[in-house]
Amino acid sequence: MAKKSKKQQQSGGTPATVALTAAGTPFTTHAYEHDPAHPSYGDEAAEAMGVSPDRVFKTLVADVDGELTVAVVPVAGQLDLKALATAVGGKRAAMADPAAAERTTGYVRGGISPLGQRKKLRTVLDESAKAHDTICVSAGRRGLEVELAPADLAQLTSAVLAPIGRV
Questions:
Q1: If you ran DSSP here, which 8-state letter would residue 102 be given?
Q2: What predicted TM-score, i.e. pTM, was given to this entire model?
Q3: 144: phi > 0 → left, psi -120 to 50 → alpha, else beta; which?
């Protein structure tokens, strides 16, 4: 991973926020105190920010036919692995090994962002994102979320929009 500049370190920038800034994409960051004892990173973020869980999206890394793929779904639901595989023209999907996900994205579990990853992975955004003016996704570390328009997220990640979430 590229070393952070002194300015990035001072401003608390992450590769995700740096990528958004470099692209000129409007976004807002939301920081909160992460509780390591909380059972769900996504629910914790929604509660801490006072945002509906259907507007807070979690970033999951799955293995689709041997290729790591990013799935971005509302924290209020779950990832439908079969729908994810279908969305990318694959046959079988399973959750990726957490160590492989961290190594490939450059982020730690609970802080994986769909933006600014070490290696750009295929990305699928749940189509429910289109129902919102803005959504929140991890900004690249636990306790930091970024709010942006779903269309901007899709464009920056070259995401396919598909019904991959289920309640």
A1: H
A2: 0.89
A3: beta
